Amino acid sequence: MTLRIGLGFDLHRLVQGRPCTLGGVQLDHPAGPEGHSDGDAVLHAVADALLGAAGLDDLGSLFPDSEARWKDADSAELLGEVQNRVQAAGWRVTSLDIVIATEGPRIAPARAAMRARIAELLDADPDAVNVKGKSLEGLGALAGGAGVAVQAVCLLSQHAD
Ligand code: MG
Prior knowledge:
Elements: E1 2-16, E2 20-22, E3 25-27, E4 31-33, H1 41-54, H2 59-62, H3 75-88, E5 92-102, H4 111-122, E6 129-134, E7 147-158
Parallel strand pairs: 5-6
Antiparallel strand pairs: 1-4, 1-7, 2-3, 5-7
Helix pairs in contact: 1-3
The structure holds magnesium ion.
Magnesium ion is lined by residues 10, 12, 35, 41, 44.
């Protein structure tokens, strides 16, 4: 069995009046991530972690924000496409851990739903997908709900048969 680790990071500004979609889940919050797509920073970081581990470049190369067809794209669909490529290359998600740093929407109440949704998109065991919310302690440019930053690390496995 071959194992590979990938790391993903993403950052989006939170703006009033945008739908707040994070981790593939609609959150009840008055501000949402700004972006060319729906701005789901969690799914973007996860996609980059997968692509990194599989050695398949990155999300920005696959879905350039210069292309109109990705405008307001559903990031769940983008991640689904990433998953298809990763799977086609013979990789499976063995473990995924995600940290969501924000003082915008509360993450804890949505954790279970995010884990289930991400596991579904990646055809993975929900126990293998973990989501953690982190406060910014009022520090930095993202404090006060101005943005969301996400780190994701994933382990892919490839089984020789
Ligand atoms: Mg992004």
